[in-house]
Structure formats: C-alpha cells, structure tokens
From TrEMBL:
Lineage: Bacteria, Bacillati, Bacillota, Clostridia, Thermoanaerobacterales
4Fe-4S in keyword set: yes
Protein name as it appears in the record: Radical SAM domain protein
GO MF assignments: 4 iron, 4 sulfur cluster binding; catalytic activity; metal ion binding
NCBIfam families: tatD_link_rSAM
Radical SAM core domain mapped to chain residues: 6-196
SUPFAM superfamilies: Radical SAM enzymes
Classification via Gene3D superfamilies: Aldolase class I (3.20.20.70)
Stored Pfam families: Radical_SAM (PF04055)
UniProt keyword annotations, A-Z: 4Fe-4S, Iron, Iron-sulfur, Metal-binding, S-adenosyl-L-methionine
UniProt KW Nucleotidyltransferase keyword: no
Amino acid sequence: MQQTVYEVGKNLYINLTNRCTNRCSFCLRENEDGYKGYDLWLDREPSVQEVIEAVGDPKKYKEIVFCGYGEPMMRLDELLEISRVLKSKGARVRINTNGQANLIHGRNVVPELAGLIDAVSISLNAPDAERYVKVCDPKFGERSFDAILEFTAECKKYIPDVTLTVVNVLSPEDIERCKAIADKLGVGFRVREYER
Ligand code: SF4
C-alpha cells in the first residue's frame, strides 16, 4: 500500500509527490524501493484532505515534515493548504526541499511560506554549480545552484529556522566549502547520513 505519511522517530513525514526536478546520484528514488520498510512510491498523489486525515492529530509529533520521495514544493498550493490546517491544529511544520521552488514556479514563492512553515532544510549537496550539476543532474542546469542560494537567502527573511544540508558522501574539503556557504548566508548547516 502506498504511504502518504510515515513516522521516523518523533516526526511524521508527508510524502506529497514522487516528482522532482533533480536526479541526484544518491537519491533513494534512484536506488531503493522504500525507506525504513515503507513503500514510498505513490500510485497517485494524495489530495489535501487525504493528507490531513492521514496526519490525524499533528500535536502527537515533534515536527510534521514535507519530504519525499520527490520534491514537495512541486505541489506548492497543496503544501500551503495542508500547512494552514496543520498550523491551526498546533503543528510545527518543516519542509525538506531541493531549494528550486522559485525556478519551478517562475516567481519568488518564499513570502507565501511566512507564518505557515517553521523550518526549512535545503539540500545544497555541492560547493559550486559545476559539481551540483554532476551530483544532482538538475532539470534547470547550472543556474540551479545560484537559485538555491537565492532561495536560501529569501527563506532567512521569512522562516525562523533555515538549514543547508549536504550528504556525507562529499569529501571533507567539499563539506567545509558548503559549510562556508551556509555561514556566509547566516543559516544553519547539517551533514546528513547517506542511508541505504
Ligand atoms: S532533490 Fe531529493 S528527491 Fe530530488 S532527486 Fe535529489 S535526493 Fe531525490
């Protein structure tokens, strides 16, 4: 059965879409059938109402996280609608994103997140545009990298908790360069475990 939401630790993750503008070499979508025993391939994308019902009482969880298999901000309207309901029920809401929402939607969408999203984790995954293209194979090409940095700077204006992340398959030198980018933007930085 397809998994619209799934629990990991004290958090609940929302699997809104399998679509993404990247094809990262380390993506679980490319390599695995599921995650921690959950089948995350969707037969069809869930409706707003289905997600809200699947979440139930959001206060049972530390955080509700829009995540994947896929890029949740592909479905921006639904994400905002769901967040509005979950916030009204007292949830803390985070988005895990590839940071390309402004390219995807052709406008700066970050102000629309204000007051609805408490935290955003943005996958940086490379210290420069050339490396980003090699690792993530983005639909928007090299300009994706600068767009992610601009998106991050915008998020800092509207969202209380902003973090850039990298996967620990990068070399220590590249991880340091990514951290320097996060420091320069004045946002948090986290190295994620590559999970198989
Ligand atoms: S951005 Fe995330 S969902 Fe998209 S391909 Fe990369 S790891 Fe997978």
